[in-house]
Structure formats: C-alpha cells, structure tokens
Amino acid sequence: MTGGFDWIALAEYSVIGLLSGGLLALIALGFVLIYKGTGVINFAMGEFMMLGAYFFYTANVMWQWPAWAALPATLAAVALVAALIERTLLRPLSGQPVISVLMATIGLASALHGGVDAVWGGNNYEMPAMLSRKPFTVGDIFIPGQVVWSFALAAVVITGFTLYFRYSRTGIAMRAAASDPLTAYVLGIDVRRTQALTWMFAGMVGAVAGIVVASMTSLSPALGGAALGVLAVIILGGLDSIAGAIVAGLLVGLIESLTAAYLGGKVRDIVPYATVLVILLIRPYGLFGTRRIERL
User: Fold this and answer.
1) Could you list the residue range(s) of the whole structural domain that residue 64 is in?
2) pTM for this entry
3) Which of 93, 296, 113, 80 is nearest to 199 (CA)?
4) Burial of residue 196, with CB atoms counted within 10 A of its CB: 0-12 exposed, 13-18 middle, 19 or more buried
C-alpha cells in the first residue's frame, strides 16, 4: 500500500475483471458467428445458452449421465435445435428486410423461454460444479478458481473456432459465403449449408457458455437474459469481428470489475454502455468492425 491507496486490491480487481472478460468474449463469439454468416443479430442467443444448460442438467443430474457423455450429447442436441430453427424459421425469411429477421429472433427468444418454463418450470436448480473452486494466488493477489478456469475454457473454445475457420476447408467456405454469398454460390459453395452450420456452431458456443454460467450461479429461465449484457461487447468490438469480441470482452470485463469495486454494483451495468457510446462516436463501426456494417 502506497500513499493510502491499495494497489494490491487494484491489481486483484483488474486481473479478475480481465479473466471474467474471457467468458463475455465466449458469449460474444456466438453473436459474431451468426452476424458474420447471415448479417443478423441473434437476439435468441441467451436462450441457446439457457437451453444448453437445461439439456446438460437433464442429462447429467436427472438422468445421471457422466459429464463426459452429457456434454457432447448436449452440444449435439443444441446443434440440432439450431439447425431446425435455421431451416424452418429463418431460411424462409431469406431476402426479407433485416428488421423482419430481427423480429423473428426476438419471437424465437420468447418461444424458447416459454418452452423451457413449461418443461422444466421456473424454479432455480443447482448445477454441478463444472469448474474447480480452488483459488489461485499470485503473490498477494487472490483469484477465484472458477474465474481462472472459465477464462481458460473460453480461450480454448475461441482458439479452436478461430483455427477451424482459418484453416479447415469448411471454415474457409463459411468465411467465403459470409463475405460474398453470391460469388461463393457461383464458385460452388452451398451457402445454405454454411448458414446452417453457422447457426449450429453458434448454438454450441452458447451451450458451453450457458453451462459454465449456470454452474457458477444457478439454473433458471432467467439465464437467457445473461446474453443481453454482452451487447456492449459485440457493439464495441465490431459485430463481425472475432478479434473484436475478444478484445472488447476483456475490456468490458475489466471496466465492470473496477466499476463494481470502486463505484458500486448499481453503476456496474451503466459504465460499459457509456464507454461504448463514447468509443462509437469516434469509431461508429466498433474497434475492429468493417466500415460497411449497417447500423440499425
């Protein structure tokens, strides 16, 4: 401590905020994937998180499946739901005004929320602890174990998807279809298939994030609202940038942690959006977004 100010506490809040930002970046990745692939903001992303968490709870807790079996089954189930939604709800809206598709995702969010409430009820459920709670200490800095492991998991998932899109044949086709669907179609790329895969991958990312969030807090239909807090991240980073989601997630996590520590929890949800507004005045397309993004 120097001059009455607790520098150790500042360092601790900063580290925790940055590590917490990894989970925000993971959730933001789901938004970015769908925007890159379809040009639409998926307002049902939180419901994919919620659905994945409930599927995992059902398999792991209610049916007593081991985690190593429950997790891939959950990812497959959410991917299937996402593919069905893309095929039956969103594909028929292809070519329609963007606002129509946006309203469809809002309606989808309400439908999924109501469906989960009808099947599982509105009670809070205790999820099994997926991440170790054993804290880490670096000198005098104390870091909760769940924060460290959630960051590590987010880093692995984001790195895996980044490498897949950059180097795999399917990933390259998905990037080409997202960049210029007409040219990709002329070159023989099945654009509809790539868009379906985009929704499936985004659903799986959301499922992983939902399981982690629910294991750190609790499981209820309110989990679907967790993704709305990530809107600041995707707007700040750029709607079509994975790198932007990472940087903005870390930045927003840092801001939220320091704000909650020094200004109080009530201000925590306001400051990130105020920061986003200031930055957007300078860079309307976000830190890493392309200049051709349309603002709605």
Assistant:
1) 7-282
2) 0.90
3) 80
4) buried
CB atoms within 10 A of CB 170: 13
| CATH code, 37 | 1.10.3470
Q: Which pair of structure tokens corresponds to residue 72?
A: 């891939």
**What total number of domains does the chain contain?**
1
Q: Is residue 249 part of a domain?
A: yes
Q: 136 pairs with which residues across the strands?
A: 143
287, part of any domain: no
| Token output for 54 | 């409930």
Q: In this structure, is residue 293 part of a structural domain?
A: no
CA 142 to CA 149: how far, in whole Å?
14
The answer to whether position 190 is within a domain reads yes
pLDDT (tens digit, 0 to 9) for every residue of the chain, 296 residues total? 445 678 888 899 999 999 999 999 999 999 998 888 777 888 999 999 999 999 999 999 999 999 999 999 999 999 999 999 999 988 888 778 878 888 999 999 999 999 999 999 888 999 888 888 888 888 788 888 999 999 999 999 999 988 998 889 888 888 888 777 888 888 888 888 888 999 999 999 999 999 999 999 889 988 888 787 788 888 888 888 888 899 999 999 999 899 988 887 777 778 877 877 888 788 877 778 766 544 44
Phi, psi of 2 (to 5 degrees): -130, 125
